[in-house]
Amino acid sequence: MGMKILNLYAGIGGNRKLWGDEHEITAVEYMPDIAKVYQDHFPKDKVIITDAHDYLLKHFMEYDFIWASPPCPTHSKVRIIATYKKDSDEIRQEPVFPDMKLYEEIIFLQYYFRGLWCVENVIGFYEPLIKPYQLADHYFWANFFIPDYETGQSREHCGTIETLEERKGFKLDSYKVDKRKLLRNCVEPEVGKHILHYALHPYEPTLKLL
């Protein structure tokens, strides 16, 4: 039996790619051009163009499983590396506060939501404030056990656009979007499937896809 799934900060749907069509999925994406890519690839899903953080607060009780991938740049170690010129104190880009909506959503789901949930983000430049699982160069917070999973890819964002398209299962030729950025931001589809599987079937091993 399928679940009602909320896919927040959906992007083009890397995490959702291998979920199949047995579930009733609502995707929330703020950027219309990105939402169109998602809708074209997953025509059976309901796509809502709005602020995901606000939507979560207002609609969380309507779903069985919630996935959230809040924006990651302010947490990324790459931003810290890029801020200072190598071997000097010269600042190359403006320092920013980390966007703490990430932890707001984790804590909110922990204490208010009665269903299954998973929050994804990059490995940050600081020790995580709440202990996550770590798979495929990303952090995952969840209220169910997620076993380790090896994708066979040492760095998921490496390669040409064509290579990334082939590996992640998206064809973006007809879209006027930042293809490399969107593909790099995609959760590996195999990891998304692995995590949903363990939400539905705790401790049952999955078959490795690669």
Average of the residue pLDDT scores: 89
Strand order of the largest sheet: 3-2-1-4-5-7-6
Shape verdict: globular
Low-pLDDT ranges: none
Overall CATH class: Alpha Beta
Percent helix, as a range, is 25-40%
Overview of the molecule:
It is a single chain. By secondary structure, the chain is an alpha/beta fold. The protein has a single domain (4-153, 187-200), classed as Rossmann fold (3-Layer(aba) Sandwich). It has helices at residues 32-41, 52-59, 77-83, 101-112, 161-168, 179-185, 189-200; strands at 4-8, 24-29, 46-49, 65-68, 116-122, 133-135, 138-142. A seven-stranded mixed sheet has the order 3-2-1-4-5-7-6, sandwiched between helices. α1 (32-41) links the parallel β2 and β3 (46-49). It is globular. The mean pLDDT is 89.
Keywords for this entry:
210 residues, 16% strand, Rossmann fold, alpha/beta, 7-stranded mixed β-sheet
SSE order and pairing:
Layout (H helix, E strand, L loop, with lengths): L3 E5 L15 E6 L2 H10 L4 E4 L2 H8 L5 E4 L8 H7 L17 H12 L3 E7 L10 E3 L2 E5 L18 H8 L10 H7 L3 H12 L10
Parallel strand pairs: 1-2, 1-4, 2-3, 4-5
Antiparallel strand pairs: 5-7, 6-7
Quick recap:
The chain is α/β, with parallel strands linked by helices and 210 residues long.
